[in-house]
Design a protein that fits this description.
It is built from 6 helices and 40 strands. The chain is mostly beta strands and 530 residues long. The strands form 7 sheets. It has an 18-stranded parallel sheet that branches. Strand 1 and strand 2 form a beta hairpin. The radius of gyration is 23 Å and the shape is globular. It starts with 11 loop residues before the first helix and ends with a helix.
Length: 530
């Protein structure tokens, strides 16, 4: 029986894409059962491939709305920055509707000179062009080097109430639940921070206490650094779970990291409620083309960049082309539930300076980078930064230079799914889940609990951190055992327990889409254009 005969109509496209890959391998960690639903295998401590389908606008599977236009801007001679910003500011004063939207500012087709930064700082505001093609809305960036867009609220998480502590000796990666010493102050729907402090014992366990560069000690993470999961309580089970374990809570989204009390006490892992009054929601940037002067500048010099987003929940960037920006987009640590869809970064000038820029830099959580690309030479297309916690997902991505490189200091919960990369080398692998050792100022172990799923690449580097895993499943490409700067931690020449089906794609074709269908149903796939 053909693959398509076993699929529902709504899931047919996903299954057909798998069939088109030809022979199929199989993963023991995640696999479809006879009914097409995914089954998971945990390791001896309960760690498993997490559910990445919570990444994206509104937590995944929700259609990005077409917000009503309330102000229109036309092209004009001279600089248009003040005119566009005035329209954004005017819409920002309008009352939001029942869905939280104030309205969209529409830029009609044509060319707009923009000599300064444009800002969205209020919930419910969308800036929309009339297409990202050369005949659409083209922003020609002028003036001294600057960021073109900032979409940002203010402040950060504001903890409130009493601190509770994890009571479990071990909480596995991919788990949505754990025991607390007390949950008397918590209710379902509470926004909470789950925070673990980096300890000296964990640094030593990770073998990150001996980093040196040119004879000088390098610091991976300082003891006391907080690694934070931003979550919401889904349910509370008040029944006792044993001595010293009074209450069990379940979160809306699984945890991307594991929590081993043997290396985290003291002070242990804490849970506390928070508010975030300055965070903005329901904001978007769409259907624009941005062109800046071609540049090849070191990071020490000012650059033309595209976008910085911070203190945002439930936002999007879609149908945007950016030509010749460097370090193009940054999504800060206080960003959550954002979709980046059909955003394409094009470089006409190869980058040759030291410290290559990154076009998509992710520090937030539940970020979906979908159907996007980077073309050009000498840059990192996608990086994660310090202490990033997932789920974050890169889906149907294309790049002609390097690839996905969790950059420094322990990110967790990253999926690279059904993506294709060229231009890789041992110096710049297309997938680099690795120990960067002394690179930079001591980047060390860059990522754990990451998954490369049905990726086509030229060079892959996937290493296993102490106490953690990185998976490479159904990927095609040459595996390299070392990172160019001298890392000597080997990976197997043949598939290990986390390197499965090399050169042979596995079912499902897309892990993210299959997880989304399992969790929310077929309509969720249609909502995101599948």
């Amino acid at each position: 029986m053909s693959v398509t005969h076993t699929c529902t109509l709504a899931f047919a496209a996903l299954c057909l894409s798998t069939a088109a890959l030809g022979a199929q391998g199989r993963s023991k960690w995640v696999y479809p059962d006879a009914r097409g639903r995914l089954r998971y295998t945990a390791d001896a401590r309960g760690n498993r491939v997490m559910d990445f389908s919570h990444a994206g606008y509104k937590g995944g599977g929700v259609r990005i709305p077409d917000v009503r236009v309330v102000r229109t801007v036309k092209p004009r001679e001279g600089d248009s920055t003040a005119q566009i910003q005035a329209a954004i500011d005017e819409v920002s004063t309008l009352a939001p509707d029942g869905d939280g939207f104030r309205g969209a500012v529409l830029l009609e087709r044509g060319r707009y000179d923009v000599g300064a930064q444009l800002r969205i700082q209020t919930s419910g505001v969308v800036l929309r062009g009339s297409g990202s093609g050369t005949d659409g809305t083209v922003l020609r960036v002028t003036g001294t080097a600057h960021r073109v867009f900032e979409v940002a609220g203010t402040g950060s998480w504001q903890p409130e109430g009493r601190i509770a502590r994890l009571a479990d000796a071990y909480v596995p990666s991919g788990s949505p639940a754990f025991a607390l010493d007390s949950a008397a102050d918590f209710r379902p729907g509470d926004a909470v921070l789950i925070q673990r402090a980096v300890t000296e014992s964990w640094i030593r366990f990770m073998n990150m206490h001996t980093l040196e560069r040119d004879g000088k000690p390098q610091t991976w993470l300082k003891p006391g650094t907080l690694i934070t999961h931003d979550r919401t309580i889904a349910s509370i089970d008040g029944a006792s779970t044993g001595p010293g374990q009074s209450t069990r809570i379940t979160l809306d989204v699984p945890l991307s990291d594991s929590f081993d009390a043997a290396y985290l006490n003291p002070p242990g892992t804490t849970v506390i409620k928070y508010t975030f009054p300055g965070r903005i929601e329901q904001v978007g940037l769409e259907s624009l083309r941005v062109v800046v002067p071609a540049q090849d500048k070191p990071i020490s010099e000012a650059q033309y960049t595209l976008l910085r987003m911070s203190a945002v929940r439930d936002g999007w960037v879609r149908d945007v082309v950016s030509v010749d920006t460097q370090n193009s987009t940054t999504f800060g640590a206080t960003v959550a539930r954002v979709t980046i869809d059909n955003v394409h970064i094009q470089h006409t000038l190869p980058f040759t300076a030291a410290a290559a820029p990154a076009d998509f830099a992710i520090s937030g959580t539940q970020i979906l980078l979908d159907r996007s690309s980077v073309t050009g030479e000498g840059v990192w297309p996608v990086v994660t930064q310090v202490g990033v916690t997932g789920p974050n997902a890169v889906l149907n991505f294309r790049s002609t230079t390097a690839g996905i490189a969790p950059h420094q200091r322990w990110a967790t919960g990253l999926l690279v799914d059904s993506s294709e990369f060229t231009g890789g080398s041992d110096r710049r692998p297309n997938i680099a889940f690795s120990n960067r050792e002394y690179a930079g100022s001591g980047h060390g172990w860059s990522v754990g609990w990451a998954v490369a799923w049905n990726v086509k690449a030229e060079v892959l580097l996937v290493q296993q951190p102490p106490g953690s895993k990185n998976w490479c499943i159904g990927c095609t490409g040459r595996f390299t055992p070392i990172l160019w700067h001298g890392n000597r931690i080997p990976i197997p020449d043949s598939p290990s327990e986390t390197h499965e089906s090399p050169g042979v794609p596995v079912a499902p074709a897309s892990l993210y889409l299959a997880q989304l269908r399992d969790r929310l149903g077929e309509q969720a796939l249609r909502n995101i254009g599948r």
